[in-house]
Write a structure and sequence with these properties.
- By secondary structure, the protein is mainly α.
- Helix content is 74%, strand content 0%.
- The chain has seven helices and no strands.
- The longest helix is centred in the middle third of the chain and has 24 residues.
- It is globular and about 60 Å long.
- The N and C termini lie far apart (44 Å).
């Protein structure tokens, strides 16, 4: 079992004993999503820590998007709950990259690939280099936007 998944289970038990309803329900949801990812596909498999981080990142992104949707629908109490759940999940994710760090990674990838003068045709190659470096630490849309900006 991955260390992160084991930590989630231990923290769930702690949250249940402390009667922390929000934390317990969020951790249950996260463990369910991990289990679903493990049994998806042709045969079941045990997820690695990196794959668990990927699942948690997806769940956190869903929470942020749901909070925005609830804000747009004039449901501030539900939006706040979604943000709180995203905050619980953030405790288990690596620290997110800042915009400056993303820009520096993209700049380095463009220089290393030597594609600065190719423009948007090089987008796929640059994204191929940058995506593994930012996985779980930055939103793919933000990374793509920075690549587009720098390739101009």
């Amino acid at each position: 079992m991955s260390a992160l998944k084991d930590r989630l289970r231990t923290d769930l038990t702690t949250a249940m004993k402390a009667r922390e309803e929000l934390r317990a329900s969020t951790l249950r949801m996260a463990l369910t999503a991990i289990t679903n990812a493990e049994v998806a596909g042709k045969e079941a498999k045990e997820l690695t820590d990196d794959e668990v981080v990927g699942v948690l990142s997806s769940e956190a992104k869903r929470r942020r998007e749901a909070a925005t949707a609830f804000d747009d629908g004039d449901r501030p109490e539900r939006a706040e709950r979604e943000r709180a759940e995203a905050g619980v999940l953030a405790d288990y994710l690596p620290t997110p990259l800042t915009d400056a760090e993303i820009a520096a990674l993209v700049e380095k990838a463009i220089a290393d690939a030597g594609v600065a003068d190719e423009g948007m045709k090089a987008m796929g190659r640059v994204m191929g280099v940058v995506t593994p470096q930012t996985k779980g630490r930055a939103d793919g849309g933000a990374v793509a936007a920075e690549v587009r900006r720098q390739l101009g």
